[in-house]
């Protein structure tokens, strides 16, 4: 139950959404759920200038379909947008012809169309009956990215002629005529054929990709009847003789390898050939399914009493599981490798929204994500230097190098909270896993280097430490002083740094000595952390978003925001928005959730009441933090309403055309586990505690959680809760 995402009508208007929503992946390659065949009018190689813009307000280029094959870590350099993920050659291509008619969802006549993603085993399927000249042919496509062999993608096509014998022609193809955000990142393309199709491309960063694709027609290695190629496409053709009511099965196996594979030794061709040896026509799905089952077994959430929430929660978990990479050289981009918006860049989304899911259900992946930050520390130090500061300053938009990739100055220069968010995420990881080795080595180094940045970034004004000229999570107020979210995060990260430094110093650890931290430095970190301004008004129990927030312009939302189906930002000029009291997303509200033990109920209630009215939720990261704060203050009705809005972003709102809003997916997991079920840690971090807040109609929620390497099963019901250790 509740494992299938289905679509019954092909509609060019929402086709791109399904391509994004049906994205498959295995921790190495990610592939959008586009059709196997060409789609009339959907070109893939358009060249255009994608300019830096506010992605929330940007009009996506209209196209019915955008193929997407992404291997995280393979990137190119765009002249304006910096390092960006590269959309690789589309190797799933299969065209079917009857006489001169090519099967095409835009122009062909067909009935009973269904496509569905089975999230349990990550298999994508499409079936329909193709009506050609008085004859009906049943067509069924299936495919998956193998979890067992990460370089392997398996496709199956079953054809059955219902009325008479027919001759069809099948074209297997690889297409390298693919641009990413309108830019061609391939400096070299080589297309070949002998016993199979092959494509080799080199990116403008000199990374190499090799693809091999082989077709088996009904059990036999039937030879192709011909080959053809253009500058960007290589094709092999097969004759398919379909006897009436006699199903024919065609299998297509593809191998994709790259120069970032761990077994790459300077020769993509020999790597490809050695990996292609794994291909034979007896490959089964058993191990692939078993591996997916193992992941679900730990990460699934079972919800009794609300099918809608159940399906959307699984949808979120599915994407969290398929998008996370096995490598610690990459993270998860804002669109989860399901589209090109945000160019494959990594944001604070990783540490704040995604990490809890991995920390508690797939801790090794959490560690990899944090190690990615460690592996890009050098870039972060260079960023700090470039801005004239000490230590390490993590980029607002990160990619492979750790250098800032954001081409909009407002965010890159001012949205500095990400550097403290990373320490917050690492601390959460440490508390839940108890990974001291990491704490006293990589984490300590990041903490010290980022603390060095903060003490050089603060200004002393009126005898107070301040952070001037910053943008908080609310990106509609770009240049503010003492943003409360930022300042509180910085205080937290400096405090924790001091705690770890104390242990490291007392034990005279190598890492401590290597970092050459002086006593004066420690004193300064202590001073800044305790004296940095935090705008909590104790009397009125209210946190000000930033200095002088109340003086910004009031907005008459009813008058300005005339069509609520579109982001508010569309109805106001950027200039006016930037001086108005309209929030893009949760800011103080985010703080209330992330530090829920630090603020009392009155503060929470006052703040959410005030800020919610001003929040436009133009960012997909906003709703879920409202849901989480409402859960915390036991307003289950509002918590559920906001959770529901979050579910409407990708799945129910058909918002995945340009990729998956993966931060929201991680947020949904938190909304259920930390929100509705109220999961938290005891003050010594040794026990799980539950403070549930289930809406009336939800009868039961069950999930599993790792804490300090032990696995627990948690059951939350209206009248009772249960935490049982099930570590094997
Ligand atoms: C949000 C940021 C977020 C980014 C990527 C923006 O629209 O305002 O908070 O990090 O999207 O998801």
From TrEMBL:
GO molecular function, one term: glycosyltransferase activity
SUPFAM superfamilies assigned to the protein according to its UniProt record, in alphabetical order: Galactose mutarotase-like, Six-hairpin glycosidases
Keyword entries, A-Z: Glycosyltransferase, Transferase
GO biological process, one term: carbohydrate metabolic process
Binding site for substrate: 348-349, 584-585
Active site annotation, chain numbering: 475
InterPro entries in the cross-refs: 6-hairpin_glycosidase_sf, 6hp_glycosidase-like_sf, Gal_mutarotase_sf_dom, GH65_N, Glyco_hydro_65_C, Glyco_hydro_65_M, Glyco_hydro_65_N, Malt_Pase/Glycosyl_Hdrlase
Limits of the Glycoside hydrolase family 65 central catalytic domain: 314-670
Top-level taxon of the source organism: Bacteria
Keyword Hydrolase part of the UniProt annotation: no
Glycoside hydrolase family 65 N-terminal domain ranges (all copies): 10-259
All residue ranges annotated as the Glycoside hydrolase family 65 C-terminal domain in the record: 685-724
Family: Belongs to the glycosyl hydrolase 65 family.
Protein name in UniProt: Kojibiose phosphorylase
Phylogenetic lineage: Bacteria, Bacillati, Bacillota, Clostridia, Eubacteriales
